[in-house]
Amino acid sequence: MTDKPNSGVTRARSVRIRLLAIALLPTLVIMPVFFMVTAANWGGRFDNLLIAKVNGELTIADQFLTQLLDKSDLQVRAVAESAEFALWADSGQERALEGLLEAERRALGLDFLYYMNGDGAVLSSPRFARTDTLAHWPVVSQALAGVGASRIDVFAREDLAAVSQDLAERARIKLVPTEAAVPTDRSEETRGMVVHTATPVNVGRGGALVGGVLLNRNLEFIDTINDLVYPSASLTEGSVGTATLFLDDVRVSTNVRLFENERALGTRVSAIVRETVLEKGEVWLDRAFVVNDWYISAYEPLTDSFGNRVGMLYVGFLDQPFRDAKFSTILTFAVAFAVIVLMSVPIFLRWARQIFEPLEGMLRTITRVEGGDLGARTGVDNTGDEIGRVAAQMDELLEQIQERDRELTRRVAARTKDLETANQQLEATSRQLVVSEKLAAVGEIAAGIAHEINNPIQVIQGNLDVMRLELGDEADRIGTELQLIDEQVHSIFLIVNKLLQFTRPDEFAEGMEHHRPADVMRDTIPLVQHLLNTAAITLQLETPSLSAVAINRTELQQVLINLIVNAIHAMPEGGALTLAVDDEAGGVEVTVADTGVGMTREVLARIFDPFYTTKRGEGTGLGLSITRKLVELYDGSIDVVSEVGVGTTFRVWFPVAEDK
To answer: What pTM does this model have?
Structure first.
């Protein structure tokens, strides 16, 4: 009964929480979720509008570039079809024709203008240093074949120098290290991007009239695009519109600024934009890092007359002012929403209180009844509404509950007592059954092992006695070996007895013997000498201790053999084995250290578990487990330190035997 009052309080709080949730759910949950979804949707649409805007601006810039190419084609064609050009071309007066080409070049704002006749001779303005490579351009070869064209081509430094050294120098731009760009070993861009126009000539000896404008550092060209795409008041306050012409990934004409009055010529586009536009040939419409800030950007690839992607056309505007405007708008709506919520919540709470206060009164009555006050009543006036009628019916039911609660309590107490008694008996019986079954199984296994091992041991012992009789005096010659066989047969007999004793620990009682571990260590070495001889292992023996311990000699020897054999197996390629017996802290410490392969932390944590072994197909996994049990049986301790590739050290400590 002690937990029921708390249960009533919990129910009261639950009713209040539910009523408050009903009252406030639309305002504090549904409306905020709706607001966040709307804000996220509006933000997405806003970003899409920015992308659509920059896409339209890229279309305008592309159309301007196309018109520039068409205009160049018309201008050069007009010169080729002019009466003055036809007059001088027919007359063959080269000096007059060169003068005409120079005048027209200046008038049209071209960087070069030349006439290649049908025989391949070239008259140029300015006079070219070389003319042997001009015909390899597709626009020139097409014009010689009778088809005019205007394309964007990339001239190597040698091509520009063939026109004029001044043109080659104007094209040269030093590269500026740029954040997020693809790493490069180049220090400057020496190529030039040229509007390359050629039109066929149908007078005189025929041929082609070819003109070109260098776009590197052509600030008038790029500023015209920027003014066309971003006229005054076309962007939000604080944003800046930019346009750029790229040769490969290098800005060769731009109004993007490094500083207030320095244009970002020689800076490079980011690696991700380069991959998308130049390598994949796709149009980029997204945010991008431009020199030193983020811009809503649009990039499209530019191809030359050979059909190769050689550069990009870019337009974009600063992203941060738009993001600030979007954040400001969302923040304004959020503040307005919060104000509305703060004003409406008190009204909703007042309405909810008129409902949950009578209900809480009834719940408090139930809590008092559950606490033992069976005479408690609701105290709510029957006003005729639903809550009043429920309160009156509750008072009637409390009379019935009072009697039923007493009866139910008596029955539950009696049944609980019976169940507890039955559970205790069942648990005790189960534990006894499990222990009995385990002991019976272990006893049967141990008895079977003892029987199966003792039989061949007796046969070995019997045949050993027969050998002594048959050999007679000759047996003395191998007396040491026969004695070792006797000792080991006896050790096996003791091990079998210990296995039986392990299943009956309460019956184990054996007289203690005092032995010096140093002596036992020296006597043990001959037993493992054959293993030491099979590998290049250097043995170091240190036994300065003269103290004795109370332990069965055979069991101590079993501990030492287990540790030494494990150390030898850990050094298949040879190494150093150190065996030491020292006096240490009121006892004797035996150390077995090797320089073998070592053990990982995972293996080290399990080496004393029964049947755990790392010698696949060779070991049983019982050696170290039995070793630890023997050590602890004589109040000793064993610990191990190991490092992979360095080696392993076992330390066994026994208390010094008391004087007899």
So the answer is: 0.50
In sequence order, what are the beta bridge partners of 151? 196
Cα gap 55→372, rounded to integer Å: 78
Place of tokens 């991008």: 288
Name the token pair of 121. 């001779």
Quick check: is 367 in a domain? no
Give the CA distances from residue 125 to residues 110, 116, 122, 209, 215, in Å, rounded to whole numbers and listed in that order: 10, 12, 10, 11, 18
The per-residue pLDDT for range 470-485, each reduced to its tens digit, is 888 887 888 888 888 8
Inside any domain, residue 408:
no
Q: What would the mean pLDDT of 150-169 be, rounded to a whole number?
A: 91
Residue 275 tokens, joined: 């991959």
CA distances 616 to 528, 535, 605, 607, 642, Å, are: 22, 20, 18, 14, 20
pLDDT in tens, 43-86: 778 788 889 999 999 999 999 999 999 999 999 999 999 988 88
Q: Using CA atoms, how far apart are residues 644 and 596, in angstroms rounded to an integer?
A: 8
- Residue 147, C-beta contacts closer than 8 angstroms, at least 6 positions apart: 200
Question: 586: domain range?
Answer: 514-655
| DSSP sequence for 91-158 | HT-HHHHHHHHHHHHHHHT-SEEEEE-TTS-EEEESPPS--TTGGGSHHHHHHHTT--EEEEEEE-HH
Q: Is residue 389 part of a domain?
A: no
Rounded-to-integer distance, Cα 303 and Cα 311, Å: 7
CB burial class (10 A; 0-12, 13-18, 19+) of residue 322?
buried
Q: How many domains does the chain have?
A: 1
562 sits in which H/E element: helix 553-569
Q: Which two tokens stand for residue 104?
A: 């027209």
Beta bridge partners of 301: 312
Take residue 560 and report the two structure tokens written for it: 């030492």
For β-strands 587-594 and 575-584, DSSP reports them as: antiparallel
Q: Is residue 168 part of a domain?
A: no
In this structure, what are the phi and psi dihedrals at residue 89, rounded to the nearest 5 degrees? -65, -40
Q: What is the CATH number of the domain that holds 639?
A: 3.30.565.10
State CA 55 to chain mean position distance: 36
Burial of residue 300 (number of CB atoms within 10 Å: 0-12, 13-18, 19+): buried
pLDDT for 6 beyond 60: no
Judge contact between 296 and 285, C-beta under 8 A: no
| Tokens, residue 58 | 């890229």
CA angle 478, 482, 483 (to 5 degrees): 115
